[in-house]
Protein backbone atom coordinates (compact mmCIF):
# COMPACT_ATOMS: atom_id res chain seq x y z
CA UNK A 1 0.00 0.00 0.00
CA UNK A 2 1.32 3.43 -0.94
CA UNK A 3 2.10 5.75 2.00
CA UNK A 4 -0.37 8.50 2.85
CA UNK A 5 0.30 11.93 1.37
CA UNK A 6 0.46 14.97 3.64
CA UNK A 7 0.06 18.41 2.06
CA UNK A 8 2.09 21.15 3.76
CA UNK A 9 0.84 24.69 3.05
CA UNK A 10 3.27 27.30 4.41
CA UNK A 11 4.70 30.41 2.80
CA UNK A 12 8.04 30.14 4.65
CA UNK A 13 10.40 27.86 2.73
CA UNK A 14 12.47 26.90 5.77
CA UNK A 15 9.46 25.75 7.74
CA UNK A 16 8.01 23.88 4.75
CA UNK A 17 11.24 22.01 4.26
CA UNK A 18 11.59 21.22 7.97
CA UNK A 19 8.07 19.82 8.09
CA UNK A 20 8.61 17.91 4.84
CA UNK A 21 11.75 16.25 6.22
CA UNK A 22 9.96 15.15 9.38
CA UNK A 23 6.83 13.97 7.53
CA UNK A 24 8.93 11.84 5.18
CA UNK A 25 11.02 10.56 8.09
CA UNK A 26 7.78 9.41 9.73
CA UNK A 27 7.03 7.28 6.68
CA UNK A 28 4.62 9.48 4.73
CA UNK A 29 4.80 11.18 1.36
CA UNK A 30 4.84 15.00 1.43
CA UNK A 31 3.41 17.51 -1.00
CA UNK A 32 4.20 21.19 -0.59
CA UNK A 33 2.52 24.50 -1.43
CA UNK A 34 3.85 28.01 -0.82
CA UNK A 35 0.42 29.68 -0.90
CA UNK A 36 -3.19 28.94 -0.14
CA UNK A 37 -4.27 28.98 -3.78
CA UNK A 38 -1.45 26.62 -4.78
CA UNK A 39 -2.47 24.30 -1.97
CA UNK A 40 -6.10 24.32 -3.10
CA UNK A 41 -5.04 23.55 -6.67
CA UNK A 42 -3.06 20.54 -5.45
CA UNK A 43 -6.02 19.36 -3.37
CA UNK A 44 -8.30 19.50 -6.40
CA UNK A 45 -5.87 17.63 -8.62
CA UNK A 46 -4.10 15.15 -6.33
CA UNK A 47 -4.95 12.50 -3.73
CA UNK A 48 -4.20 14.21 -0.42
CA UNK A 49 -4.87 12.41 2.86
CA UNK A 50 -4.26 15.20 5.40
CA UNK A 51 -3.18 18.85 5.47
CA UNK A 52 -0.83 20.86 7.67
CA UNK A 53 -1.86 24.50 7.14
CA UNK A 54 -0.09 27.63 8.36
CA UNK A 55 -2.44 30.22 9.87
CA UNK A 56 -0.59 33.35 8.77
CA UNK A 57 -0.16 32.84 5.05
CA UNK A 58 0.89 35.73 2.87
CA UNK A 59 -1.06 36.71 -0.23
CA UNK A 60 -4.79 37.17 -0.59
CA UNK A 61 -5.80 34.06 1.41
CA UNK A 62 -4.92 33.56 5.06
CA UNK A 63 -5.05 30.19 6.76
CA UNK A 64 -8.66 30.47 7.89
CA UNK A 65 -9.81 31.39 4.38
CA UNK A 66 -7.96 28.36 3.01
CA UNK A 67 -9.47 26.17 5.73
CA UNK A 68 -12.98 27.28 4.75
CA UNK A 69 -12.24 26.53 1.09
CA UNK A 70 -10.88 23.07 1.98
CA UNK A 71 -13.90 22.26 4.12
CA UNK A 72 -16.17 23.18 1.19
CA UNK A 73 -14.58 20.52 -1.04
CA UNK A 74 -16.75 17.46 -1.79
CA UNK A 75 -14.49 15.16 0.28
CA UNK A 76 -12.20 17.37 2.38
CA UNK A 77 -9.18 15.82 4.12
CA UNK A 78 -8.59 16.58 7.82
CA UNK A 79 -6.69 19.84 8.39
CA UNK A 80 -4.47 20.86 11.30
CA UNK A 81 -3.76 24.57 11.69
CA UNK A 82 -0.20 25.53 12.66
CA UNK A 83 0.67 28.92 14.14
CA UNK A 84 3.36 30.63 16.14
CA UNK A 85 0.79 33.22 17.23
CA UNK A 86 -1.95 31.24 18.97
CA UNK A 87 -4.80 33.30 20.44
CA UNK A 88 -8.11 32.32 21.97
CA UNK A 89 -9.92 33.81 18.98
CA UNK A 90 -8.01 31.99 16.24
CA UNK A 91 -8.08 28.71 18.18
CA UNK A 92 -11.87 28.79 18.60
CA UNK A 93 -12.47 30.00 15.05
CA UNK A 94 -10.22 27.36 13.52
CA UNK A 95 -11.92 24.54 15.41
CA UNK A 96 -15.36 26.02 14.68
CA UNK A 97 -14.57 26.09 10.96
CA UNK A 98 -13.69 22.40 11.03
CA UNK A 99 -9.96 22.18 11.74
CA UNK A 100 -8.99 18.79 13.15
CA UNK A 101 -6.55 20.45 15.57
CA UNK A 102 -4.75 23.74 16.22
CA UNK A 103 -1.07 23.41 17.16
CA UNK A 104 1.45 25.99 18.29
CA UNK A 105 4.86 26.23 16.66
CA UNK A 106 7.52 24.99 17.22
CA UNK A 107 6.03 21.50 16.97
CA UNK A 108 7.72 18.50 18.55
CA UNK A 109 8.33 15.46 16.39
CA UNK A 110 6.32 13.25 18.77
CA UNK A 111 3.38 15.66 18.75
CA UNK A 112 3.42 15.85 14.95
CA UNK A 113 3.56 12.05 14.69
CA UNK A 114 0.59 11.72 17.04
CA UNK A 115 -1.36 14.38 15.15
CA UNK A 116 -0.79 12.73 11.77
CA UNK A 117 -1.75 9.31 13.14
CA UNK A 118 -5.04 10.66 14.47
CA UNK A 119 -5.84 12.63 11.30
CA UNK A 120 -5.21 9.62 9.09
CA UNK A 121 -7.27 7.38 11.38
CA UNK A 122 -10.16 9.79 10.96
CA UNK A 123 -9.61 9.85 7.20
CA UNK A 124 -9.74 6.06 7.11
CA UNK A 125 -12.95 5.84 9.15
CA UNK A 126 -15.11 8.35 7.36
CA UNK A 127 -15.34 10.75 4.45
CA UNK A 128 -16.51 14.07 5.85
CA UNK A 129 -19.53 15.68 4.17
CA UNK A 130 -19.05 19.20 2.78
CA UNK A 131 -19.35 21.92 5.33
CA UNK A 132 -20.28 25.46 4.42
CA UNK A 133 -18.99 27.67 7.25
CA UNK A 134 -20.27 31.21 7.41
CA UNK A 135 -17.85 34.03 8.07
CA UNK A 136 -19.01 35.68 11.28
CA UNK A 137 -17.83 38.74 13.14
CA UNK A 138 -17.04 37.26 16.55
CA UNK A 139 -17.17 39.31 19.72
CA UNK A 140 -13.72 39.03 21.32
CA UNK A 141 -15.00 40.49 24.57
CA UNK A 142 -16.72 37.14 25.20
CA UNK A 143 -13.63 35.06 24.39
CA UNK A 144 -11.97 33.23 27.31
CA UNK A 145 -8.46 34.64 27.63
CA UNK A 146 -5.37 32.52 28.15
CA UNK A 147 -2.75 30.42 26.38
CA UNK A 148 -2.17 27.82 29.10
CA UNK A 149 -2.81 24.24 28.05
CA UNK A 150 -6.02 23.95 30.16
CA UNK A 151 -7.44 27.12 28.59
CA UNK A 152 -6.44 26.03 25.09
CA UNK A 153 -8.47 22.85 25.66
CA UNK A 154 -11.45 24.99 26.71
CA UNK A 155 -11.13 27.17 23.60
CA UNK A 156 -11.02 24.08 21.36
CA UNK A 157 -14.08 22.65 23.12
CA UNK A 158 -15.96 25.91 22.50
CA UNK A 159 -15.04 25.79 18.82
CA UNK A 160 -16.25 22.19 18.51
CA UNK A 161 -19.50 22.71 20.42
CA UNK A 162 -20.54 26.24 19.40
CA UNK A 163 -22.68 25.33 16.40
CA UNK A 164 -24.23 22.29 18.06
CA UNK A 165 -27.50 22.34 20.00
CA UNK A 166 -26.07 19.84 22.49
CA UNK A 167 -26.55 20.68 26.17
CA UNK A 168 -23.25 21.75 27.75
CA UNK A 169 -22.29 21.51 31.42
CA UNK A 170 -19.52 23.90 32.52
CA UNK A 171 -17.86 22.94 35.79
CA UNK A 172 -15.29 24.77 37.86
CA UNK A 173 -14.64 26.66 41.04
CA UNK A 174 -16.36 29.95 41.75
CA UNK A 175 -14.81 32.77 39.75
CA UNK A 176 -13.22 30.63 37.00
CA UNK A 177 -15.30 32.19 34.21
CA UNK A 178 -18.15 29.76 33.66
CA UNK A 179 -20.55 32.41 32.39
CA UNK A 180 -17.88 33.70 29.99
CA UNK A 181 -17.63 30.21 28.48
CA UNK A 182 -21.43 30.09 28.12
CA UNK A 183 -21.42 33.48 26.39
CA UNK A 184 -18.60 32.37 24.08
CA UNK A 185 -20.60 29.26 23.11
CA UNK A 186 -23.46 31.60 22.17
CA UNK A 187 -21.37 34.29 20.45
CA UNK A 188 -19.52 31.80 18.24
CA UNK A 189 -22.71 29.92 17.30
CA UNK A 190 -25.40 30.34 14.65
CA UNK A 191 -27.70 31.45 17.53
CA UNK A 192 -25.69 34.63 18.06
CA UNK A 193 -28.38 36.99 16.63
CA UNK A 194 -30.90 35.61 19.15
CA UNK A 195 -31.02 36.32 22.92
CA UNK A 196 -28.58 35.07 25.53
CA UNK A 197 -30.39 34.85 28.88
CA UNK A 198 -28.60 34.03 32.16
CA UNK A 199 -30.35 32.86 35.32
CA UNK A 200 -28.59 32.22 38.63
CA UNK A 201 -30.51 29.31 40.12
CA UNK A 202 -28.96 29.85 43.55
CA UNK A 203 -29.88 33.54 43.78
CA UNK A 204 -33.66 33.20 43.23
CA UNK A 205 -35.96 32.02 46.06
CA UNK A 206 -37.31 28.53 45.35
CA UNK A 207 -40.94 29.73 45.37
CA UNK A 208 -40.17 32.24 42.60
CA UNK A 209 -37.84 30.13 40.46
CA UNK A 210 -40.60 28.40 38.49
CA UNK A 211 -42.13 31.72 37.47
CA UNK A 212 -38.67 33.13 36.69
CA UNK A 213 -37.90 30.24 34.34
CA UNK A 214 -41.26 29.31 32.85
CA UNK A 215 -43.26 32.52 33.27
CA UNK A 216 -46.85 32.90 34.47
CA UNK A 217 -50.20 34.25 33.36
CA UNK A 218 -51.99 37.16 34.93
CA UNK A 219 -53.81 36.13 38.11
CA UNK A 220 -52.01 32.76 38.44
CA UNK A 221 -51.05 33.65 42.02
CA UNK A 222 -51.19 36.59 44.39
CA UNK A 223 -49.15 39.42 42.93
CA UNK A 224 -49.25 38.14 39.33
CA UNK A 225 -50.67 41.37 37.94
CA UNK A 226 -49.54 40.73 34.35
CA UNK A 227 -48.38 37.92 32.06
CA UNK A 228 -44.69 37.08 32.19
CA UNK A 229 -42.74 35.11 29.56
CA UNK A 230 -40.03 33.65 31.78
CA UNK A 231 -36.41 32.94 30.89
CA UNK A 232 -37.08 29.98 28.57
CA UNK A 233 -39.41 31.97 26.31
CA UNK A 234 -37.22 35.09 26.55
CA UNK A 235 -34.32 32.96 25.24
CA UNK A 236 -36.37 31.35 22.44
CA UNK A 237 -34.12 30.78 19.43
CA UNK A 238 -31.05 31.59 21.50
CA UNK A 239 -29.18 30.30 24.54
CA UNK A 240 -30.32 29.92 28.15
CA UNK A 241 -27.55 29.81 30.75
CA UNK A 242 -28.57 28.11 34.00
CA UNK A 243 -25.86 29.10 36.45
CA UNK A 244 -25.33 27.21 39.72
CA UNK A 245 -27.77 24.49 38.66
CA UNK A 246 -26.30 22.27 41.37
CA UNK A 247 -28.17 24.41 43.92
CA UNK A 248 -31.56 24.09 42.21
CA UNK A 249 -34.34 22.79 44.53
CA UNK A 250 -35.27 19.10 43.94
CA UNK A 251 -38.87 19.89 42.92
CA UNK A 252 -37.60 22.26 40.25
CA UNK A 253 -35.10 19.71 38.98
CA UNK A 254 -37.92 17.41 37.85
CA UNK A 255 -39.54 20.22 35.85
CA UNK A 256 -36.24 21.20 34.22
CA UNK A 257 -35.67 17.56 33.24
CA UNK A 258 -39.05 17.50 31.48
CA UNK A 259 -38.25 20.70 29.56
CA UNK A 260 -34.87 19.33 28.47
CA UNK A 261 -36.58 16.20 27.15
CA UNK A 262 -39.59 17.77 25.43
CA UNK A 263 -38.59 21.41 24.79
CA UNK A 264 -42.00 22.42 26.15
CA UNK A 265 -42.55 24.86 29.04
CA UNK A 266 -45.75 25.39 30.96
CA UNK A 267 -46.19 28.87 32.46
CA UNK A 268 -47.68 28.95 35.95
CA UNK A 269 -51.43 28.96 35.37
CA UNK A 270 -51.01 28.71 31.59
CA UNK A 271 -50.82 26.23 28.73
CA UNK A 272 -47.74 24.39 27.38
CA UNK A 273 -45.59 26.32 24.91
CA UNK A 274 -42.93 24.90 22.54
CA UNK A 275 -39.50 26.56 22.81
CA UNK A 276 -36.28 26.32 20.82
CA UNK A 277 -33.50 26.95 23.33
CA UNK A 278 -29.91 25.77 23.64
CA UNK A 279 -29.13 25.01 27.29
CA UNK A 280 -25.76 25.70 28.91
CA UNK A 281 -25.62 24.87 32.61
CA UNK A 282 -22.86 25.51 35.14
CA UNK A 283 -22.01 24.64 38.70
CA UNK A 284 -19.16 24.78 41.18
CA UNK A 285 -20.64 21.74 42.93
CA UNK A 286 -19.45 18.18 42.39
CA UNK A 287 -22.67 16.81 40.95
CA UNK A 288 -21.82 13.09 41.29
CA UNK A 289 -21.40 13.64 45.04
CA UNK A 290 -24.70 15.49 45.25
CA UNK A 291 -26.37 12.67 43.32
CA UNK A 292 -24.97 10.18 45.85
CA UNK A 293 -26.28 12.35 48.69
CA UNK A 294 -29.76 12.49 47.16
CA UNK A 295 -29.51 16.25 46.58
CA UNK A 296 -29.48 16.12 42.78
CA UNK A 297 -31.47 13.92 40.40
CA UNK A 298 -29.34 11.31 38.68
CA UNK A 299 -31.43 11.42 35.50
CA UNK A 300 -31.06 15.19 35.30
CA UNK A 301 -27.31 14.88 35.83
CA UNK A 302 -27.00 12.50 32.87
CA UNK A 303 -29.24 14.74 30.76
CA UNK A 304 -26.98 17.74 31.49
CA UNK A 305 -23.71 15.86 31.24
CA UNK A 306 -23.81 15.36 27.45
CA UNK A 307 -20.75 17.55 26.95
CA UNK A 308 -18.74 18.79 29.92
CA UNK A 309 -16.25 21.67 29.78
CA UNK A 310 -14.09 21.76 32.93
CA UNK A 311 -12.43 25.03 33.94
CA UNK A 312 -9.15 24.78 35.84
CA UNK A 313 -8.61 27.11 38.82
CA UNK A 314 -6.28 30.04 38.25
CA UNK A 315 -3.58 28.51 40.48
CA UNK A 316 -3.22 25.76 37.86
CA UNK A 317 -3.03 28.27 34.98
CA UNK A 318 0.05 30.31 35.84
CA UNK A 319 0.65 31.13 32.18
CA UNK A 320 -2.68 33.00 32.09
CA UNK A 321 -2.25 35.25 35.14
CA UNK A 322 -0.17 38.05 33.63
CA UNK A 323 -2.15 38.16 30.31
CA UNK A 324 -5.39 38.30 32.31
CA UNK A 325 -4.04 41.08 34.52
CA UNK A 326 -2.99 43.09 31.46
CA UNK A 327 -6.45 42.52 29.96
CA UNK A 328 -8.09 43.88 33.12
CA UNK A 329 -5.75 46.88 33.06
CA UNK A 330 -6.96 47.66 29.53
CA UNK A 331 -10.59 47.31 30.64
CA UNK A 332 -9.98 49.64 33.60
CA UNK A 333 -8.55 52.46 31.46
CA UNK A 334 -10.89 55.34 30.67
CA UNK A 335 -11.71 56.04 27.00
CA UNK A 336 -8.69 57.63 25.33
CA UNK A 337 -6.48 56.86 28.35
CA UNK A 338 -3.41 54.65 28.11
CA UNK A 339 -3.68 51.57 30.37
CA UNK A 340 -1.43 51.46 33.41
CA UNK A 341 1.57 49.14 33.31
CA UNK A 342 2.76 46.55 35.80
CA UNK A 343 6.24 46.36 37.30
CA UNK A 344 8.13 43.09 37.26
CA UNK A 345 7.73 42.90 41.04
CA UNK A 346 3.96 43.07 40.68
CA UNK A 347 3.96 40.38 38.00
CA UNK A 348 5.98 38.12 40.33
CA UNK A 349 3.59 38.94 43.19
CA UNK A 350 0.56 38.02 41.11
CA UNK A 351 2.14 34.72 40.13
CA UNK A 352 2.88 33.91 43.78
CA UNK A 353 -0.71 34.31 44.93
CA UNK A 354 -3.04 31.28 45.37
CA UNK A 355 -6.11 33.16 44.02
CA UNK A 356 -8.84 31.23 45.87
CA UNK A 357 -11.39 33.50 44.17
CA UNK A 358 -9.80 32.77 40.77
CA UNK A 359 -10.29 35.19 37.85
CA UNK A 360 -12.95 37.19 39.67
CA UNK A 361 -10.53 37.81 42.55
CA UNK A 362 -7.74 38.79 40.13
CA UNK A 363 -10.01 41.29 38.37
CA UNK A 364 -11.08 42.85 41.66
CA UNK A 365 -7.45 43.09 42.77
CA UNK A 366 -6.42 44.83 39.54
CA UNK A 367 -9.40 47.21 39.67
CA UNK A 368 -8.49 48.12 43.26
CA UNK A 369 -4.83 48.66 42.35
CA UNK A 370 -5.80 50.97 39.47
CA UNK A 371 -7.78 53.12 41.91
CA UNK A 372 -4.99 53.20 44.50
CA UNK A 373 -2.07 53.79 42.11
CA UNK A 374 -0.80 57.37 41.92
CA UNK A 375 1.10 57.10 38.65
CA UNK A 376 1.02 55.23 35.38
CA UNK A 377 2.77 52.15 36.79
CA UNK A 378 1.37 49.60 39.21
CA UNK A 379 3.58 48.06 41.88
CA UNK A 380 3.01 45.60 44.73
CA UNK A 381 2.29 48.45 47.15
CA UNK A 382 -0.72 49.45 45.04
CA UNK A 383 -2.44 46.11 45.60
CA UNK A 384 -3.83 47.02 49.04
CA UNK A 385 -3.38 43.45 50.31
CA UNK A 386 -3.50 44.24 54.02
CA UNK A 387 -4.34 41.15 56.03
CA UNK A 388 -3.84 38.72 53.16
CA UNK A 389 -1.05 36.25 53.86
CA UNK A 390 0.28 35.87 50.36
CA UNK A 391 3.78 37.33 50.61
CA UNK A 392 6.09 35.68 48.10
CA UNK A 393 9.59 34.59 48.95
CA UNK A 394 11.96 37.56 48.97
CA UNK A 395 13.87 37.46 45.66
CA UNK A 396 17.64 38.00 45.47
CA UNK A 397 18.82 41.59 45.24
CA UNK A 398 18.39 42.99 41.75
CA UNK A 399 16.24 40.06 40.62
CA UNK A 400 13.36 42.39 39.71
CA UNK A 401 15.45 45.25 38.34
CA UNK A 402 14.81 46.55 34.85
CA UNK A 403 11.69 46.54 32.73
CA UNK A 404 8.76 44.11 32.96
CA UNK A 405 9.85 41.77 30.11
CA UNK A 406 13.31 41.37 31.71
CA UNK A 407 11.87 40.66 35.15
CA UNK A 408 9.30 38.22 33.78
CA UNK A 409 12.08 36.42 31.86
CA UNK A 410 14.03 35.98 35.12
CA UNK A 411 10.89 34.71 36.78
CA UNK A 412 10.11 32.28 33.96
CA UNK A 413 13.69 30.96 34.04
CA UNK A 414 13.52 30.23 37.76
CA UNK A 415 10.03 28.69 37.55
CA UNK A 416 11.07 26.42 34.66
CA UNK A 417 14.22 25.36 36.52
CA UNK A 418 12.24 24.54 39.66
CA UNK A 419 9.55 22.67 37.70
CA UNK A 420 12.16 20.51 35.97
CA UNK A 421 13.83 19.77 39.29
CA UNK A 422 10.50 18.84 40.89
CA UNK A 423 9.59 16.57 37.97
CA UNK A 424 13.05 14.95 37.75
CA UNK A 425 13.52 16.25 34.21
CA UNK A 426 10.16 15.11 32.86
CA UNK A 427 9.35 18.03 30.59
CA UNK A 428 5.81 16.89 29.83
CA UNK A 429 4.97 16.91 33.53
CA UNK A 430 6.87 20.19 34.05
CA UNK A 431 4.84 21.83 31.26
CA UNK A 432 1.61 20.60 32.86
CA UNK A 433 2.61 22.04 36.25
CA UNK A 434 3.54 25.36 34.64
CA UNK A 435 0.24 25.51 32.73
CA UNK A 436 1.87 25.72 29.28
CA UNK A 437 2.12 23.29 26.38
CA UNK A 438 5.21 21.14 25.96
CA UNK A 439 6.40 22.85 22.79
CA UNK A 440 6.31 26.27 24.47
CA UNK A 441 8.39 24.84 27.33
CA UNK A 442 10.98 23.56 24.84
CA UNK A 443 11.12 26.99 23.24
CA UNK A 444 11.62 28.76 26.58
CA UNK A 445 14.32 26.27 27.66
CA UNK A 446 16.21 27.13 24.48
CA UNK A 447 15.47 30.87 24.71
CA UNK A 448 16.79 31.16 28.27
CA UNK A 449 19.78 28.91 27.67
CA UNK A 450 18.66 26.31 30.17
CA UNK A 451 20.19 22.88 30.07
CA UNK A 452 17.28 20.56 30.87
CA UNK A 453 19.62 17.91 32.27
CA UNK A 454 21.40 20.37 34.56
CA UNK A 455 18.12 21.92 35.71
CA UNK A 456 16.66 18.54 36.60
CA UNK A 457 19.71 17.27 38.41
CA UNK A 458 19.85 14.31 36.03
CA UNK A 459 21.78 13.47 32.90
CA UNK A 460 20.72 15.40 29.82
CA UNK A 461 20.05 12.12 28.08
CA UNK A 462 17.30 11.38 30.56
CA UNK A 463 15.19 14.21 29.26
CA UNK A 464 16.32 14.61 25.70
CA UNK A 465 15.60 12.08 22.99
CA UNK A 466 14.95 11.88 19.28
CA UNK A 467 11.24 12.55 19.80
CA UNK A 468 11.90 15.93 21.41
CA UNK A 469 13.11 17.59 18.22
CA UNK A 470 11.12 20.64 17.19
CA UNK A 471 9.71 21.48 13.79
CA UNK A 472 8.88 25.00 12.67
Describe this entry's structure for a reader.
With 472 residues, this protein is an alpha/beta fold. The chain folds into 4 domains: 5-125, 3-Layer(aba) Sandwich (Rossmann fold); 141-311, 3-Layer(aba) Sandwich (Rossmann fold), CATH 3.40.50.300; 314-383, Orthogonal Bundle (Helicase, Ruva Protein, domain 3); 404-471, Orthogonal Bundle (Arc Repressor Mutant, subunit A), CATH 1.10.10. It has helices spanning 13-25, 36-45, 63-71, 88-96, 109-125, 149-161, 178-187, 206-214, 231-234, 250-262, 287-292, 298-304, 318-332, 344-352, 358-372, 404-422, 427-434, 438-447, 452-456, and strands at residues 5-9, 29-33, 50-54, 79-83, 101-104, 107-108, 168-172, 196-200, 239-243, 264-265, 273-274, 278-283, 307-311, 341-342, 377-378, 470-471. The strands form 5 sheets. The chain has a 5-stranded parallel beta sheet with strand order 2-1-3-4-5, with helices on both faces. Helix 13 (318-332) crosses helix 15 (358-372). Residues 126-140, 386-394 and 454-470 have low confidence and may be disordered.
Amino acid sequence: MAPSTILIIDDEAGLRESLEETVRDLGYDAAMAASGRTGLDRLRGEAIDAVLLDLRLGGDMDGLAVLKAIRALPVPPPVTILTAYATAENTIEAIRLGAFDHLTKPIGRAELADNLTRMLALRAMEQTAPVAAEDAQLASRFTPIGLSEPMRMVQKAIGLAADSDTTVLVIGETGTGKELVARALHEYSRRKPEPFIAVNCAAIPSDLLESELFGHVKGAFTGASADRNGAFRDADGGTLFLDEIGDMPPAMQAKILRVLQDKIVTPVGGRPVQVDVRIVAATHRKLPERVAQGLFREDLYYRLNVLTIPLAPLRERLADIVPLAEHFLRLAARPGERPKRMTGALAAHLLSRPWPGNIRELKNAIDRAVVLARGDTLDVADMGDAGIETEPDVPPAGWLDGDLPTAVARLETEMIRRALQTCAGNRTEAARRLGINRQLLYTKIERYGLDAGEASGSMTGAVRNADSREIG
